[in-house]
Amino acid sequence: MGAVTERAPKQDRSRATRQRILEAAVACLAEHGWSGSTVAVVCTRAGVSRGAAQHHFRTREELFTAAIAHVAEQWLTAVRERARALPREGPDRTYAVVDMLVAVHTGPLFRAALHLWVAAGEEEALRPRVTALESRIGREAHRLAVDVLGADEGRPGVRETVQGILDMARGLGLANLLSDDSARRGRIVRQWSRMLDAELRATAQG
Amino acid sequence: MGAVTERAPKQDRSRATRQRILEAAVACLAEHGWSGSTVAVVCTRAGVSRGAAQHHFRTREELFTAAIAHVAEQWLTAVRERARALPREGPDRTYAVVDMLVAVHTGPLFRAALHLWVAAGEEEALRPRVTALESRIGREAHRLAVDVLGADEGRPGVRETVQGILDMARGLGLANLLSDDSARRGRIVRQWSRMLDAELRATAQG
């Protein structure tokens, strides 16, 4: 009994340390870019020893890829949860969903991911990991968008309509990188969610 | 007379050297990213002396910002020219225009610009220049898109509809960074140019 109760808190502590490292890694990437994000910088930020980080992640590439994956998973879960509180259907729901999808692309997770994507274009050690990660997050974000929009992908064009919204969200994230683009973005989100809603309704009836 | 005829070829040579440097700078950025793009690397690629580059550009930041501006101007002019050969209106024109707008975002110019944008997020010396450049290119690309689509921005929602297409194009550029996304992209361009065309027609009649 003693051994079991002691092991549980130890596992909890290890999991908490891992999470602290992952969250510090995303914050570092978002603020300092890839070249400024060393394992040492992350350890200082997370308040953990270098040894603790090495226990969880063998390489810098593994650490940062895991960090983006972790925070992306948290975001996907949060969107699913928040979508339950939205109106069940109609233009208001469509608007709220598009707004949520766009919001994540203008926050620190997207900024961090962007640094990792761009660095992966130059660094062979990073590219295969990041390519696989990007493709996985892309698929999951698409699945999420289809689900929370209640879109029927069996209908022609619906898949591409939803994908285009996610690509637009990425573009809006880029446009927000150097300056506050929120006023323009708000108007685009309103107009495009209206177009999306009309298209999904027309397709559902057609 | 002698002095005048000698000066003209000298100016031509200087202009040609400047252009060679600018084009080499964009190619370097696209291939090696910001950290791998030094003035020395650009000079070697352009086949010019360091002195020649310094004659035209005082700093590395000035050189690369001028390079993106130069190639973006060339691209804007090329799109205007190619648009003259398209059908005058209708879905085929809309499709061809969207296809052209998206195409540039998946080529070396976008890749180079992306490296510069992301680096500007980290480097104070680069940020004001790149922010001003991004905003100028963004405005000109928007003006171009409105013109070649024959869109009437006096009608409600039209401005945001066209802006969203350019943001989608940027997002499609990002999605193409690490892997060939052309098949998926082709389907999205087809679907969204159809939706764009319907929206512009509906607004023009409304």
Automatic annotation (TrEMBL), chains A, B:
One Pfam family per UniProt: TetR_N
DNA-binding region: 38-57
A molecular function GO annotation: DNA-binding transcription factor activity
Entry keyword set: DNA-binding
Keyword DNA-binding: yes
Record bears the keyword Phosphoprotein: no
InterPro entries in UniProt: Homeodomain-like_sf, HTH-type_TetR-like_transc_reg, HTH_TetR
Stored Gene3D superfamilies: Tetracycline Repressor, domain 2
Domain HTH tetR-type: 15-75
PANTHER family: HTH-TYPE TRANSCRIPTIONAL REGULATOR PKSA (PTHR30055:SF226), HTH-TYPE TRANSCRIPTIONAL REGULATOR RUTR (PTHR30055)
Name the UniProt record assigns to this protein: Transcriptional regulator, TetR family
